[in-house]
Amino acid sequence: MSDKYNPEEQSVLQKIQNQTGCLLLVIGVAMLAFVLTDLISSGSSIFGSDENAVGEIANEKVSYEEFNATFENLKNQLIANNPGIVIDENIAKQYQNQAWNMVVESRVIEPQYEELGISVSPAELEDLTIGDNTHPQIQQSFQDPETKQFDKQRLTRFLKEDINTNPDALKSWNEFQDQFTRGLIAQKYNQMIGSSVYFTNLESKYNDEENEKSRSITVVSLPFNEYEDSTLKVSDEEILAYIKKSPKKYEEKASRDIEFIRLNVTPSKEDSSDMMLQMVEIAGKFKESTDDSVFVSIMNSEIPYSDVYQQRGSFSPSIEDAIFSASVGDVLGPFQNNGTYSVLKLTDIGTDSLYSVRGSHILFNVIGEDTAQAERDAQELIAQINNGETTFEAEADKRNYDATRGKGGDMGWIRKDNTVYPKSLVDHLFSASVNSLHVVRTNKGVYIAKATEVPNNKTVQIAQIDQTIFPSTKTDGEYYRIAGNFIAKVTANQPFEEVAEELGLTKRVAYKVNEEFLNIPGVENPNSIAKWLFSNETKENDISEIIEIDGSYYIAQATKIRQEGLAEVDDIRPEVETILLNMKKADILAPRMEKALSKAKDADALANALKTEAIVVPAATFNNANLPNIGEDKIIVGTIFGLKTGATSKVIKGENAVAVVYINNENEFKPQANLDQKNQMMDQLKQNFQQKTRRSLEEKAEISDWRYRFYN
Q1: Structurally, how many domains does the chain consist of?
Q2: Helix or strand (DSSP H, E) at 158
Q3: CB 3.0–4.6 Å: which of 143, 192, 255, 648 could bond 512 by disulfide?
Q4: Sign of the alpha-carbon torsion through 269, 272, 276, 277
Q5: Spatial distance between the Cα atoms of 693 and 667, rounded to a whole number of angstroms
Q6: Does 242 share its domain with 176?
Q7: Half-sphere exposure of 68 toward its Cβ, with a 13 Å CA cutoff?
Q8: How many CB atoms lie within 10 A of CB 175?
Q9: Is this model's pTM higher than 0.70 or not?
Q10: Bridge-partner residues for 56, per DSSP?
């Protein structure tokens, strides 16, 4: 452990370590999860230039070397604890994000621990390791293999005796202690934040009222959306003046707009034909193979060899009958499904301990209906089917709302121990003759049941070779040529959209793409586009080169470049223009309503004077700001609960209307003294404050994430 946690007086645990050079080579899967999920790692103090930075935190650069070291360390831990694991793109992305969170933690959150003096003493660490309160994660890593219970002697023996098996033992254990201690400090910090807030009984009462208390009101309104005046205009100057009053609300990060096209490189008919010929050749060799598992491996099948016996219902319906009709040694296929070609070889036949049956059903739901009547309706439908007036399949598709809809009621092959369908229905299918129709009453409704295959317990062992078709070099080159042609046309000043239409391509757009939120609709991995888009060399209206992402070619144009600061008028106009128009409408309509209100004795009289209607809302609640003819209007709803019973409001200039509300009465309401609800709200409040504290610290640090520059 670092000196930060080691006063001069050594703990018992430290003495054991110094005497034995203790070992922790494999922490175990559970402890790995604890370390990766809850713990943090210190960051390097080496900062590079912008060109070598993956981000910036609190005005200090995060160098690629520092970040990548953290990232690689996480991957190495994963590999060490999961031998043979293949780190694909999804796993790499997950651990890359984990590494970034650890760097942010070390730069933003950890300094708070030091300022607050939060630490873990040697005595605490000893107690949580070899003391009376061994941490659950450590207990889980030192269990008796037979009882699965924590074995403290095993832990002590580990620390005292297992010292010569690996020269890096002491280093590994010290690294674990350091991470473990950091996790405990983080836990103390969160507990401190959580304990600084409290949800009082009064707050619980008000929360209960906001959710349950309601008032009966009458509202007379003049909605803005019903008032048309072509003379009302909003100028750019008015919009600018409005947003300057609330600069924080309308400040925006630097962002860029793009339009782009995507060429999804797909195999040609020729590619498909070539693949079919290859699979036919493989099928011939497969038939002659004497070691099927080796042959499947040599052919690089996307499905590894398996010697598991499979029952009916395990395969696609289109090929299942052929499989179960084949003999041992028969080769079936090639079959093609969604671009994947398959060749199957029947290697053995067995029997299942349970039988399967195939059937279909039509369901009569009995909710709110008499079960006996549902049975009579089912019998009547059977008669219609038998008379040829309709078909079983058509009625099933019309009446069923489960997975059989669109399949003519086909349930597929069902085992005796099935849990999807009612037991009485399944039992009936097993005893029924094929294609006979019967009414079956179950706990889920009344069914018309039809067995479509006799019960069967046959199983098959299948060796399978799957190959997905990929575009050939020739096909890929053709798409690349189209992309090059596109660039040539748009760089010759032909409009982007016009070229897209000419070449039969769809132009897509993405607005306000920024470095912190790389969201480009339709692009799962936008890093490569972002590298070009946010390059200092990219100017407004520039066209990208051909960008390859996951087997597709993209070409983009930067249509707008915005700097950080107050939003531009054109960008904010749709939102603010509506607000300002409504304010102008309120200024026109309010005097008209005030004049009518001064003469009206009640809501109906006011409504008649304004040629509208008085609407009674029997139960308006504070948390539901949606009012008839008005919509969601927090100003009007706030006024409703700010008045006394029997009162009439003044003219309210709301968000969506001018209105007058009459408070008829307060509905009966009994506060609920619910301790569980209060505790739940308390837990939520603590969690919110913990999240807000972290968010505030991160906002203050002004974090910039530039990882996209280095990782695809």
Answers
A1: 4
A2: helix 152-161
A3: 255
A4: positive
A5: 39
A6: no
A7: 13
A8: 18
A9: no
A10: 61, 704
